[in-house]
Amino acid sequence: MSAGLVEVRGVHKAYGTLEVLDGIDLVVKPGEVTVILGPSGSGKSTLLRAINHLEKVDRGFIEVDGELIGYRTRSDGALQELKEKEILRQRTRIGFVFQNFNLFPHLTALENVVEAPVSAQGRPRAEVEAEARELLERVGLGDKIDAYPRQLSGGQQQRVAIARALAVKPSVVLFDEPTSALDPELVGEVLDVIRDLAATGTTLVVVTHEIGFAREVATTVVFMDGGRIVEQGSPAQVLDDPQQERTRAFLDKVL
Ligand code: ADP
Ligand code: MG
């Protein structure tokens, strides 16, 4: 049994000579909210993409819910790649919310939410639709189920994207700067939905520059720089009493 719902161990990833992930170890326990902070280019998106297997790692391994993502260690210690089919099955158990919503433009809000459980998980459409309606209610969009993305504000689109991520009944939901593309007045409604998920015990990993949100919601704050985790701990530890100069310099800039 693994201690974490998400376990990242010794993960390395390079693009050419650039070490984008330079030995990442991270454990996310069930029900925890991990907020990842760090300057642009520090590897945050690459880490999330590796957890979701959108990105192959060069070394190390990642487990979600006790299942290896991408690689398993053979008895001789070498890494063996998982088969594509197995990867796809594992990926359906992870929700991913992107900075730019990435909704299907030709599908309504309801159809966007219904898509993955039906086509990737093969679940019955009627049952999935009933759940999708509930999810859209939950994110405050019960009156928008038949709207197309272009008819929705950025904040509403991102809330559809969150409902869509939840529709696969994921064991963890990953957010990559979910409010960065939003007008300032729309940030709050999206953070409220994420806060609600946190309060109901959903395991979350959130890359964000919203320090106030991190302080309020995070179980653990992780500060990344140069492909490494420089410092991690409770919000009080990392945000109010950072031990590393690089963390302090970053917080001085964003606070
Ligand atoms: P962050 O999300 O923290 O801003 P990223 O994970 O997106 O950082 O990127 C980390 C570094 O990797 C950056 O220097 C970026 O330019 C580089 N990078 C990301 N994706 C690629 C890619 N597909 N090819 C080459 N370099 C990349
Ligand atoms: Mg990024």
Automatic annotation (TrEMBL):
It comes from the Bacteria. SMART domains: AAA. Coiled coil: none annotated. InterPro entries: AAA+_ATPase, ABC_ATPase_HisP-typ, ABC_transporter-like_ATP-bd, ABC_transporter-like_CS, MetN_ABC_transporter-like, P-loop_NTPase. GO terms for cellular component: plasma membrane. Residues 6-251 form the ABC transporter domain. It is an enzyme of class 7 (translocase). GO terms for molecular function: ATP binding; ATP hydrolysis activity; ATPase-coupled polar amino acid-transporter activity. Keywords: ATP-binding, Cell membrane, Membrane, Nucleotide-binding, Transport. It is found in: Cell membrane. Its EC number is 7.4.2.1. It catalyses: a polar amino acid(out) + ATP + H2O = a polar amino acid(in) + ADP + phosphate + H(+). Its main location: membrane. It is a peripheral membrane protein. PANTHER family: AMINO ACID IMPORT ATP-BINDING PROTEIN (PTHR43166), L-CYSTINE IMPORT ATP-BINDING PROTEIN TCYN (PTHR43166:SF35). This is ABC-type polar-amino-acid transporter. It comes from Cellulomonas chitinilytica.
